[in-house]
Every structure is written in C-alpha cells, then in structure tokens.
Design a protein that fits this description.
Layout lengths: L7 E3 H14 L11 H15 L4 E3 L5 H12 L1
Antiparallel strand pairs: 1-2
Helix pairs in contact: 1-2, 1-3, 2-3
C-alpha cells in the first residue's frame, strides 16, 4: 500500500478487516457492540452493499477508517 490514493479495497478485504477487529475486541453476548475500529469499517461495508460496490478507493475512506483498515492488514 505504498500509494494509498490508487489502492482500492474490495468488499472481501473490508470484511476481513472487520473480522480482524472483532477477533481482537470481541463483543460480549450482553452488549453486542462492535469496537470503534470494526464499527467504522462496518459503516463503509454497509455503504458498499447498499450501492452494490465491489471495491472502494482507500483514499475515499474517512481517516479513522483508513487507519483501522491499514492496521488490520499489517497483522
């Protein structure tokens, strides 16, 4: 990801990042609340589903979402 302005993220990659954060910070059965990193990525995921997008440029991610995505893919 040396050039984030040209990098596109597939819906599958986004789902993998969400699952990474969910595994790092699981919800309890009582709360069923996503951690902040998974929640911001889930918003983008929902947007992609609603608008039938298979990929989205990383440069279109809000800053916190881009950071969460990049951190998930480092690990």
């Amino acid at each position: 990801m040396s050039n984030t302005t040209l990098h596109t993220v597939s819906i599958i990659e986004l789902e993998q990042a969400i699952n990474y954060w969910r595994s790092q910070h699981p919800s309890s059965r009582d709360t069923m609340i996503l951690c902040p990193q998974a929640a911001i990525l889930a918003e983008l995921y929902a947007h992609m589903i609603i608008f039938h997008q298979q990929e989205i440029p990383l440069s279109d991610f809000p800053e916190k979402a881009a950071i969460a995505f990049q951190q998930a893919h480092k690990n």
